[in-house]
Amino acid sequence: MGILTVKGVNKRFGGLQALGDVNLDVAENTCHAIIGPNGAGKSTLLNVLVGKLIPDSGSVVFDGQSVLGRQPHEINQMGISRVFQTPEIFADLTVMENMLIPCFAKRDGAFRMHAIQSVRHEGDMIAKAEEMLDEVGMLDKREMTASSMSRGDKRRLEMAMCLVQEPRLLLLDEPTAGMARADTENTIELLKTIRREKGITMAIIEHDMNVVFSLAERITVLAQGTPLVEDIPDNIKGHPKVREAYLGEAQV
Amino acid sequence: MDQIIVQILNGLDKGSAYALIALGLTLIFGTLGVVNFAHGALFMLGAFCAVILSKILNISREVLVEGETDFLGNPLMRDVPVVYDWFGEAAGAAIIDWNVPLAILFSIPIMIGVGFAMERGLIKHFYKRPHADQILVTFGLAIVLAEVIKYFFGANPIQTPAPAAFTGSLDFGVWLGFDPLTIMYPYWRLVYFFFSALIIAGVFAFLQFTTFGMVVRAGMADRETVQMLGIDIDKRFTFMFGLAAAVAGLAGVMYAPIVAPNYHMGMDFLVLSFVVVVVGGMGSLPGAVAAGFLLGILESFASMPVVVDILPGINQIIIYLVAIIILLTRPRGLMGRKGVMED
Amino acid sequence: MTDQTNPSVTTAAPSPRPRAASGGFLGLTKRDSTLMLIVFALVVLAPFILNPFPEGSAMAQFNAGYPDLMQRFVIFGIFAIGFNILFGLTGYLSFGHAAFLGVGSYAAIWSMKLVTLNVIPGILFAIVVAGLFSLVVGFVSLRRSGIYFSILTLAFAQMMFAMAYSVLTPITGGETGLQIKNTDTPLFGGPTDGSIGRANLFGAEMGNSYELALGNWLFTFNLGYYIAAVFMLIAFYLSIRVFRSPFGMMLRAVKSNQQRMNYTGLTPKRYTLWAFIISGMYAGLAGGLMVAMDTQVGPERMFWTASGEVVIMTILGGAGTLMGPILGAGFIKYMENIISKINKDILHEWFAFMPDGLEDVMVSLVYPFIGKGWHLTLGIMFMLVVIFLPGGLVEGGQRIAAKFRRNKTAGDN
């Protein structure tokens, strides 16, 4: 029994069966990749996991609790953080403030009327944020406005914002999409380090096979809304069904 | 029964004005994606076109009246409008009398010009900025336009009567078999209703049946695609702004006999017409028209004594109440598309 | 934008113990303390500062140091400071905040009519009632965002105005509004001789003034003004604390990216609702103070253009900055009360040194923009600020200051 268990999830948009009987089991302390051709239902699945979509049937259990019907912020408070395809950060705020917000969210919960105490006096939180920034190598940028940074740095910041919450599960939605080669390499390195040093469970949705095979310890292949195979990377590489799914797409 | 007909009729002229303003607002919003808080000011400018024309037509020269003196014994001077000299006294008087309908012709080029200037000079710099900025800058413009008018025409309403031929009321009830004098409807309001119906039909026909209209409708649906097709949509959008301004202006010109033009009438109508647009559905032209008439009629029903006795004050708040309920239960309005403007 | 909106949060060393605010007081940074001191000095010395010209001189018409106007400066300052907490931080543009000011006014006057002529309970009551109203209106309006939110607040406010004007006449006095009458018998200590009761603070009347004549100058120190000023200083101080707090940071996060907030485990709507309520309470305080100073209220102060005015004040001064709303409120109230009184004769006096023809030209050029035309100037300035200076007058001032500094360093080299 993994930390995240998806059982028999169906989701239909009008006539389109986006997800059909999806089962998935993400074991604790692994990196689990979900791959599949375009339109395989990867993003739909992700949106179900974070509470943005409610499936028509099935169950999603995280750490013994159902996530279905919960708001995204509740699911985050349960311990799931999400990295977006295009970095979602607080663009008008400084890097340091971007880091402090998740720190406060972790400590104070979804809402706290914390209107008189000055941020300056939150020494613990500042220390925590700086430590995390240091880990991702951005401490020198802490006073920069987030919007003025490069895309690679924004991605880095977003990951730091998720990691500083010490999530039990980190969801990554194509973390290297649209990135330059160097940035992609950096991101892979960063994720590897995080995996190695923090032992955070990751579920990653990715197109880039290079990324998938460098990171994943287990892979689920999704096609037309249904899981085809689930196995370790070495077995996925030459799997005939997987090849068919991808080649099938190429022929269309 | 007769009461109901009276209320529907009463609602029609106000509803026509709402519908015309909301139509213009929606044209601008749908094509350009701009929230124009200065649209009420365009309505007001239209009404003042009628005032300006009447001032022009009444430009007079002094003429000595032969053989008469005033009470001090001085020679009596009389003002004679210049148009009398040009067209003769009878025709001249008729022209002055028909000032408001004539102002329609007078106002169209002016309003289109104002619309062009507004779009080129101000609005086009705001396409990429947040809606809040658009609201603010056009709100500022509305203040400026109102103040300019106030400077030239003063703060008091200026009576601008309809042609004498339309001053009476139509005994509408007799037509329908009611007793005489039960359902009276002023001629001019009837004219206003038909006039707006005509304009609304015109705008729709224009969008429906011309190539230009087709491109604009396509642009309303998906701006980027049309741009990729290589059609110079911006120029057409400028024209749309001029058209919207003209529609608002015409609504104002013809409204001048109903409510004497004053500098703040734009602000008065603005809030209501925004409510109309929201109820109709942001970006939906039929929605704007339908909601305009619907709310106009609803408002006049709410002011019936019977209704006011049961729910005091309902006539004052009905429109806002409807708007709040619609916004909360059906955010896209009666006919709008989903997700428009939900930042 | 500037360091006003982005407080330097890392100036404190990452030590777990909060350092004593270095050089500041009341828990403020040195910089904020300076700002607080400046505002304190301006407010306390306002009777001097606003009366720079001797009585009877040609320039005396520019003196703004009379109690009535000074009270308005600080009261509208409070209103705008509160509005800025909502609009400046979260970016939610409410077009209905005057309704809360009106509600506060009605609450305060009823407190004075029924309970006591002492202003303090009235003002507190005003804050509470306005807070409750803004809770309801905010809760409903915040189910939508963007322009829909603006229109919902506008619709609510117009509805409240219309009801105060008509149906609720027994409570609001309808069109004529409410005043304190000689028939009012407050529970505690009303006048017994049949005279009209006056607002007071434990017996000291709001209208009490002390006049100080120094040479040709006359300075008026009014009790009502100083009471309003104390409230304003507290309101300003609290707004600094809010800006610098985690809560304030969350509000700026609302403006920046609500999606990220949701996925960070936060509820942007609840934060925004509280910002809405706080700004509603500020409006209520302003409304209560208005009644305390001038014991009457009418529905027109709830009309949507009154809401538009506070929007203009905040943005003209600088939305999202601390000083902006105060500057904006002061600027507009000065124009409304002083500049609006300049007429053609006064202009002719000013330009009298010019040759006759030129004098007339100048007068006719300037006249449309001042005196009764001050709204025109205001509208134009407002547009210019929205187009070119998103940070308002505060940003303008900073740009000029920066330019001077640059020139100076260039000169030094």
TrEMBL record, chain A:
One of its GO terms (cellular component) is plasma membrane. This is Methionine import ATP-binding protein MetN. Keywords: ATP-binding, Hydrolase, Nucleotide-binding, Transport. The keyword Hydrolase applies. PROSITE patterns: ABC_TRANSPORTER_2. The gene is metN. Residues 4-249 form the ABC transporter domain. It comes from the Bacteria. It is an enzyme of class 3 (hydrolase). InterPro entries: AAA+_ATPase (IPR003593), ABC_AA/LPS_Transport (IPR051120), ABC_transporter-like_ATP-bd (IPR003439), P-loop_NTPase (IPR027417). One of its GO terms (molecular function) is ATP hydrolysis activity.
UniProtKB/TrEMBL annotation, chain B:
It is a multi-pass membrane protein. Keywords: Amino-acid transport, Cell membrane, Membrane, Transmembrane, Transmembrane helix, Transport. The keyword Transcription does not apply. One of its GO terms (biological process) is amino acid transport. InterPro entries: ABC_transp_permease, BCAA_transport_permease. It is found in: Cell membrane. CDD domains: TM_PBP1_LivH_like. Pfam families: BPD_transp_2. One of its GO terms (molecular function) is transmembrane transporter activity. GO terms for cellular component: plasma membrane. The chain crosses the membrane at residues 17-35, 42-60, 102-123, 135-154, 160-178, 190-216, 236-257, 269-298, 310-328. Belongs to the binding-protein-dependent transport system permease family. LivHM subfamily. This is High-affinity branched-chain amino acid transport system permease protein LivH. It comes from Pseudooctadecabacter jejudonensis. The gene is livH_3.
Automatic annotation (TrEMBL), chain C:
GO terms for molecular function: branched-chain amino acid transmembrane transporter activity. InterPro entries: ABC_transp_permease, LivM-like. CDD domains: TM_PBP1_LivM_like. The chain crosses the membrane at residues 35-53, 73-95, 115-140, 147-168, 223-243, 271-290, 310-329, 376-396. Keywords: Cell membrane, Membrane, Transmembrane, Transmembrane helix. It is a multi-pass membrane protein. GO terms for cellular component: plasma membrane. Its main location: membrane. Signal peptide: none annotated. It is found in: Cell membrane. It comes from the Bacteria. This is Leucine/isoleucine/valine transporter permease subunit. It comes from Pseudooctadecabacter jejudonensis.
